[in-house]
Amino acid sequence: MSAAALSVEHLTLSAGVRRVVQDVSLAAAPGEVIGLVGPNGSGKSSLLRAVYRVLRPDGGRIRVDGDDPWGMSARTLARTLAAVVQDPGAAFDLTVRDVVAMGRTPHKRLLDGDTAEDARLVAAALSAVDAEDLADRGFDRLSGGERQRVLIARALAQEPALLVMDEPTNHLDVRHQLQVLGLVRRLPATVLVALHDLNLAAYYCDRIHVLQAGRIVASGTPAEVLTPRLLEEVYGVVGEVRVHPRTGAPQVTFLPDEADREAAASGAQPC
């Protein structure tokens, strides 16, 4: 399956009586990696939930290759879109291999068994996230980082045209953060990903949308969006942004508060 085009137009979302996303529009061309960044509570996860059909929009529309995901059957949507979420719910009482094999379910009829191709794709997905050695272990006995890698492998085995990821680097050590996002960058899929780490977003995303209080306040390439002024206005911190001499990507350095710097220099302990 080829990568899908994604369009979000004037999207509005509520959680109970609270408006969490207001008039958000964005688009992803096939094969692009689009990043969502912003402070906690800015609406990133809510926006993703609307795209992978968990939170129904109050207004606006979403289109995946021109089709409304809310009008698709669950099976049809799962053959197009895969999601890696922050909270997958209760741990599965299954082996890791069986959890990853769940990604093949949308491509089967009800009573179809696993094929040699399914086994190959599951093995390849486990290898891609450096989890081959976990295949026969119980999923419910894994660490948080190991579970995250397995859930990413399940999404890879699904062979999606659109991959939606909510903080996929949570719980991962530095090596696996880079490995997973490098893999995402190479996928033959369109990717919409929420990230907290601005330097990872700057390196791996084609374009970034910055959310604040449920609205997009900046959009563009990482170099266009990540500025000291934006860091101060959106995150409330002082920072420097420079071009990394080896990667060519913007590199953000956050600076401690002046009072904190003085306290650190004097050896004083924080209250």
Instruction: List the strand order in the largest sheet.
Output: 5-6-7-3-8-9
The top-level CATH class is Alpha Beta
Range of strand content: 25-35%
Determine the N-to-C terminus distance.
Answer: 56 Å
Helix content: 25-40%
What is the N-to-C order of secondary-structure elements (H for helix, E for strand)? EEEHEHEHHHEHEHEEHHEEH
Shape: globular
Mean pLDDT over the full residue set = 93
Q: What is the count of helical runs?
A: 10
Count structural domains. 1
Describe this structure in words.
Helix content is 32%, strand content 26%. By secondary structure, it is of the alpha/beta class. It has a single domain (6-222), classed as Rossmann fold. The strands form 3 sheets. A 6-stranded mixed sheet has the order 5-6-7-3-8-9, with helices on both faces. Strands 2-1-4 form a 3-stranded antiparallel sheet, with helices on one face. A hairpin with a 2-residue loop joins strand 1 (6-15) and strand 2 (18-28). The protein is globular and about 65 Å long. The termini are far apart.
